[in-house]
Design a protein that fits this description.
This protein is of the alpha+beta class and 867 residues long. Among the domains are: 188 residues, tricorn interacting facor f3 domain (Immunoglobulin-like, Sandwich), CATH 2.60.40; 133 residues, Neutral Protease Domain 2 (Neutral Protease, domain 2, Orthogonal Bundle), CATH 1.10.390.10; 74 residues, Sandwich (Immunoglobulin-like); 131 residues, Peptidase M1, alanyl aminopeptidase, C-terminal domain (Zincin-like fold). The strands form eight sheets. The protein has an eight-stranded mixed sheet, with no helix packed on it. Strand 20 and strand 21 form a beta hairpin. Helix 12 runs parallel beside helix 15, helix 14 packs across helix 15 and helix 19 runs parallel beside helix 21. It starts with 8 loop residues before the first strand and ends with a helix. The model has no long low-confidence stretch (mean pLDDT 98). The structure holds tryptophan and zinc ion (ZN).
């Protein structure tokens, strides 16, 4: 059967389903190439008038169909691309459908597929329709009972959502298990896994005394590396009870790790499925960033149990309802588990790196989009990261207490429903007594507001006036923009660092910090009792996802770096100076920045993770986004020049940090990780000094006792241009060739290394026997690492980088459309570059567009990018 033709789905055209299904009983007879799925549904018409029942289905072979036990005749139903239509069904009936599917041949990794000889499913967003004909939409909630049958020797473990109610053997070599999930759920949360696993088990007792059996299932041999994930899971469960009063609601919580997976992880009810890269970790094979990501994503998927599963989305336009809110919850969890200031800076870096660039290009869309062709293409930084920022701002706008009341009201009122953003926001209007009508603009308007701030001090009157104006550039489909409510957190310091209190007009007392929300396009804020000329910080804590244009001098920023009480502002001051230097706006400031960074190193013992972040200068992608007419070669050179100045100035401080021996025993905790991150940042800074550093880096590489340090040394070897890079890579490969997650790093480190031969290297990697188009992690280790982390080479002036990515996309699209489409995101910046680069990018994209068999996913991305 053919796929359905591309159609644009619009939020404005939402209509409730004509039928509901309250109960589904599924029987899977698992065979790799021919699995039979028998689905028995209890179907009920929603309205009074007769209506056809339109079921979704993709890549299914229909075996039989019956209503209330009577097989349908061919005039009673019709098969169309993507659909099965039952023409005139009764108002309430039992529907029996048997389909046949081919999990072993499923390279889309959507629906039921096989990974490493094991069965697994991925149903979000619209994968359930590749398992059986279904009302595959999130506003149809059913109770599922699932019977799995399989060969016992080949597939000894059989898992699905909910609780295990029955199991046994039959027919000699086969066995079965029945899993019943008492919680009604949409089809996208269905999951099944079957195969040979190794597992670890633990338990958690909820605050009301429910004992929950916890299991993590991994490939045989990997179970010791799942311990950290289990620990993170228990901490997540406890944290959600403490902070959001949310308890778990089943007797079992299982996680399965899968090697071939399109995304990070999936929150299926009671049976989360994870990319193995976000479960498996130990000191030798995983970096601290991996441990951090495991903790965050285990938390994220667990938190979905309330924000996503018990309260789900009415339609896919509401995706941010679950994703933005869950990102926010995940970030708060990480902040509480580790360091709140460091977490905030990392979250801002990620937002700026991924979302600001999206907002600035042809793929810009609101946190709640209003139309799509393939919803897979809208699992974006905007929906996730900006969606999280919107929740954070909501808390600032109505205050922490009203926010907490609103959250509890949301959990009570919307439990068990498929909800909208409006339903969510209504809870906060009620809890706060404030209108959030203007705030809705954050959900509906694409683009990053730019906030311009100018201050004037009147020494005689001791007043300070801040004039603020906001403006958002047009985005596709949204030529005009409205002003949005922007929460600010403002504080002043003097040149010597003294904190300056002040009284904001309309306020009753003097304060050291002002929290307020500005609304219109132009705002004037008047502060009195200002005893000294102030250095203003208006966006402390990065209180809103905006770009800030202030006119602070380098000296003022240096004072902020040294003295502002807000860590985000201190970090941002250093970043701003670095940006100004690299963009040619402050050519003489490099020595002062180097000295200031030296002071960060002097006080690094207090908070090494912060010093490490300060030492990492804005990356090339950030510069390419900020510059008016970006030239990748010029900006790369400017960045390297500044790095060399800093490295030369601070060499005596950096070298001992970079070569400090590994701490033993290894601890994955935030403190030890912070010290290692400083070592890695020092190595990175010293790599700007060139190949002469090679021997020192090789020594660090050879003596490293953790992957964090080993990988950092290898990256430094790469960036320094040292010849020892290849020898070290060869040793690394030999040591780790049996571990796919580590070999992913081997690919990614090379693909992202900014060496002159990077494109040739990427081509060689593509031809390497370990490169595998069917494994998304391996594909991303080459393609995404190259296109996103090696911007100088990706944007090379001869167009070679563009052609490389487009040709990989062309090769992957027939196998895995969702993956292929997502790989195209680095093209989002193409219109910002000079004419020759633009014409190379356009040619590469147009060549894709000309392919007649391109998937809906990739076609939508290509067309939006070109538009
Ligand atoms: N809902 C998942 C999450 O954010 C992500 C997800 C969406 C996903 N679509 C997917 C995961 C497809 C795997 C494959 O946690
Ligand atoms: Zn999520």
């Amino acid at each position: 059967m053919r796929d359905a033709e591309p159609v644009t789905i619009r939020l404005s055209e939402y209509a409730p389903p004509a039928y509901q299904i309250d109960e589904i009983a599924l029987v899977f007879s698992l065979e790799p190439e021919a699995t039979l799925v028998a689905a028995r549904s209890h179907v009920r018409r929603s309205g009074v008038a007769p209506a056809p029942l339109v079921l979704n289905g993709e890549r299914l072979e229909l075996q039989s169909i019956a209503i209330d036990g009577a097989p349908l005749t061919t005039d009673q139903y019709r098969e169309e691309p993507g659909k099965l239509i039952i023409l005139d069904p009764p108002p309430e009936f039992r529907l029996d459908i048997v389909t046949r599917i081919n999990p072993a041949g499923n390279t889309h990794l959507e629906g039921l597929y096989m990974s490493g000889g094991r069965f697994c499913t991925q149903c979000e967003a619209e994968g359930f329709r590749a398992i059986t004909y279904a009302l595959d939409r999130p506003d149809v909630l059913a109770r599922y009972a699932v019977r799995i049958e399989a060969n016992k020797a080949a597939y000894p473990t059989l898992l699905a959502n909910g609780n295990l109610t029955e199991s046994g053997e039959f027919d000699g070599d086969r066995h079965f298990a029945v899993w019943v999930d008492p919680h009604p759920k949409p089809s996208y949360l269905f999951a099944l896994c079957a195969g040979k696993y190794e597992s670890i088990h633990d338990s958690f007792t909820t605050k009301s005394g429910r004992n929950v059996a916890l299991g993590i299932y991994v490939d045989p041999g990997d179970s010791e590396r799942a311990r950290y994930a289990m620990d993170a899971l228990k901490r997540s469960m406890q944290w959600d009870e403490q902070v959001f009063q949310r308890e778990y609601d089943l007797d079992v919580f299982n996680i399965v790790a899968v090697r071939d997976f399109n995304f990070g992880a999936m929150e299926n009810k009671g049976l989360n499925i994870f990319n193995s890269s976000l479960i498996l970790a130990d000191a030798e094979t995983a970096t601290d960033a991996d441990f951090e990501a495991i903790e965050a994503v285990v938390g994220h998927e667990y938190f979905h149990n309330w924000t996503g599963n018990r309260i789900t989305c009415r339609d896919w336009f509401q995706l941010c309802l679950k994703e933005g809110l869950t990102v926010y919850r995940e970030q708060e969890f990480s902040a509480d588990q580790r360091s709140r200031p460091t977490q905030r800076i990392k979250d801002v870096k990620r937002l700026r790196g991924r979302q600001f660039s999206e907002d600035a290009g042809p793929l810009a869309h609101p946190v709640r989009p209003s139309s799509y062709q393939k919803i897979d293409n809208f699992y974006t930084a905007t929906v996730y990261e900006k969606g999280g920022e919107v929740i954070r701002m909501l808390k600032r706008v109505i205050g922490a207490e009203a926010f907490e009341r609103g959250m509890q009201l949301y959990f009570e009122r919307r439990d068990g429903t498929a909800s909208t953003v409006e339903d969510f926001v209504a809870c906060f209007e009620e809890a706060s007594g404030k209108s959030l009508k203007d705030f809705m603009g954050w959900y509906e308007q694409a683009g990053t507001p730019s906030l311009t701030v100018r201050g004037t001090y009147d020494a005689a009157a001791r007043t300070y006036t801040l004039k603020l104006s906001q403006r958002t550039a047009p985005t596709p489909g949204q030529p005009t923009k409205q002003a949005l409510p922007i929460p600010l957190q403002i504080g002043f310091i003097a040149k010597d660092g003294a904190i300056i209190a002040s009284k904001l007009e309309g306020d009753t007392i003097s304060r050291v910090e002002h929290k307020l929300v500005i609304t219109g396009e132009e705002t004037t804020l008047k502060f009195s009792d200002v005893l000294e000329p102030p250095i203003p910080a208006v966006l402390r804590g990065f209180s809103a996802p905006v770009t800030l244009d202030d006119d602070l001098t380098i000296d003022e920023r240096l004072a902020q770096m040294a003295h502002d009480p807000d860590p985000f502002t201190r970090w941002e001051a250093g970043q701003s100076i670095a940006r100004a230097i690299m963009l040619g706006e402050a050519p003489n400031a490099a020595p002062a920045l180097a000295t200031a960074l030296g002071r960060e190193l002097d006080r690094a013992q207090e908070d090494p993770a912060f010093a490490a972040l300060a030492l990492r200068l804005p990356d090339l992608n950030e510069l390419l986004l900020t510059a008016q007419k970006p030239d990748p070669e010029v900006l790369f050179a400017a960045r390297e020049a500044l790095r060399r100045t800093v490295a030369t100035t601070l060499r005596d401080k950096l070298t001992p940090l970079a070569t400090a021996p590994s701490e033993t025993p290894f601890s994955p905790g935030a403190d030890a990780a912070g010290r290692r991150s400083l070592k890695a940042a020092a190595l990175d800074m010293l790599s700007s000094l060139g190949a002469e550093q090679g021997d020192a880096f090789l020594e660090v590489f050879d003596t490293a006792r953790s992957m964090t340090e080993g990988a950092a040394a290898l990256e430094a070897l790469g960036a320094s241009g040292s010849d020892a890079f290849d020898a070290a890579l060869a040793r690394f490969y030999e040591r780790w060739k049996a571990n796919p997650l580590v070999i992913d790093k081997w690919f990614a480190i090379q693909a992202s290394s900014p060496r002159a031969d990077a494109l040739a290297r990427a081509e060689r990697l593509r031809a390497h026997p370990d490169f595998n188009l069917k494994n998304p992690n391996r594909v991303r280790a080459l393609a995404a690492a190259f296109a996103m982390r090696n911007p100088r080479v990706f944007h090379s002036s001869d167009g070679g980088g563009y052609r490389f990515l487009a040709s990989l996309v062309e090769q992957i699209d027939p196998l895995n459309p969702a993956l292929a489409a997502r790989l195209l995101t680095p093209f989002e910046s193409w219109k910002r570059f000079d004419a020759p680069r633009q014409s190379h990018a356009r040619a590469a994209l147009e060549q894709l567009a000309a392919l007649t068999n391109l998937s809906k996913n990739t076609r939508e991305m290509v067309e939006r990018t070109l538009a």
